[in-house]
Amino acid sequence: MRPEPRLGERGSATSDLWWFLAIMAALWFLWYATGGPLRPEVATGPFIETPTPVTTVGGGEIHRASDELTPLSPELRSPWSGQVRISGGNARYEIQSGKEYIEITADYQNPAPINITGWRLVNNPARRARSMVATIPAAANLFISTTAGQLAPIMLSPGGRAIMVTGAPPSRTAWPLRQSFRLNKCVGYLEEEFDTLNLTPSLPRDCPDPADEPGVATLPDKCYNFVRSLSSCHEPEFKEDREGVDRVDGRVDDLTRACRLYVEEHFNYNACVKWHERDPDFYTDDWRVYFNQPWELWAENRERITLYDESGKLVDELAY
Fold first, then answer.
1. Four-point Cα dihedral 21, 23, 29, 32, nearest 10
2. For the sheet containing 139-140, what is the strand order?
3. What are phi and psi of 261, to 5 degrees?
4. Kind and range of the H or E element at 269?
5. Residues 287-312, buried b or exposed e (16+ Cβ, 10 A)?
6. Is the peptide bond before 201 cis (omega within 30 degrees of 0)?
7. Residue 119 class from Cβ within 10 Å (0-12 exposed, 13-18 middle, 19+ buried)?
8. Closest C-alpha to 53, from 131, 145, 135
9. Which residues are CB-neighbours of 190 under 8 A, at least 6 positions away?
């Protein structure tokens, strides 16, 4: 026969259980009052600090909002407010980061170019546990297809536009540049050469007219007529067919060696840059900026895109 518990033992155990439950309830209320399921670590994992973002040369940095060194000040208007604006691009319906983009445009009435490198774009925190902050990088003023371009601040001219692509430049291809870059009047040759990449948005195909190239007027008649028949931004293809017949763009090549040399030295991207870099209209007012983000940055609805200057002051906001 089991001995009867002594007086007070059963009551003491029950009392301890109630104390334990009371402490657990208090801890739960404290957790809920400080954010509960909306706390950042629920979405980001149990890090004491958010991991440092990886930066790609010529590409923008992506941070969590609380990682920013300069506080964002939505209540303070930037001196550039009204001079630079956000437009939606294709952010509402594109989910591939390499194709998703928004646009930043400068007003035509601005008195001078505006340096937007170091400015930040922020997505809507109401859609996420913590918003993401994309920092606008420096860019290559001249896209040189044989080497990396020298990086410089993005100067947005009056009426200028910067297309902000969430992802990275084309990878695992022959695309020669891994940087953000400024467009020029020769980039149409790149659009033709890399047409299978389906760049979004596509590069403009508005190159110098072949008939206006230096030296055309002095060419022999057959070469002169051939050059004048070329389309803008087109690099003729010289190759030998299976029967050993030389062809140019699929037609029998009856051009002289001197004519072929002239064509090869004028009608491709690098040659176009060589002959036209000093033209007053060589550079356009458009830029391509890459944030190198592997996933989409902007939601399809209930999104708020906010642009801050380098001091953290509000420049513009777009909600949809």
1. -100
2. 84-87, 101-106, 161-165, 283-290, 181-184, 139-140, 151-152
3. -65, -40
4. helix 269-276
5. bbbbbbbeebbbbeeebbbbbbbbeb
6. yes
7. buried
8. 135
9. 143, 145, 203, 269
Q: Which residue has the tokens 């291809």?
A: 173
Encoded tokens for 179: 């940087």
Question: Which contacts qualify for 151-154: CB closer than 8 Å, 24 or more apart?
Answer: 151/57, 151/58, 151/179, 153/115, 153/116, 153/117, 154/115, 154/116, 154/117, 154/180, 154/182, 154/287, 154/289
The pTM assigned to this predicted structure is 0.76
Query: Does residue 101 contact residue 165 with C-beta atoms inside 8 Å?
Result: yes
Residue at token pair 């064509």: 263
How far lies 52's CA from each of 67, 195, 296, in Å?
A: 9, 36, 19
Here the tokens at position 215 are 């030296």
Q: Splitting the chain (320 residues) into consecutive groups of 10 residues, what average pLDDT does each group show?
A: 49 61 64 46 32 45 62 88 95 94 98 97 88 93 72 96 93 76 94 84 94 95 96 93 86 93 95 95 96 93 95 95
Give Cα 16 to chain centroid, integer Å.
Answer: 60
> How many angstroms separate the CA atoms of 215 and 217, rounded?
6
Residue with tokens 């020769």: 186
Cβ(143)–Cβ(58) below 8 Å: no
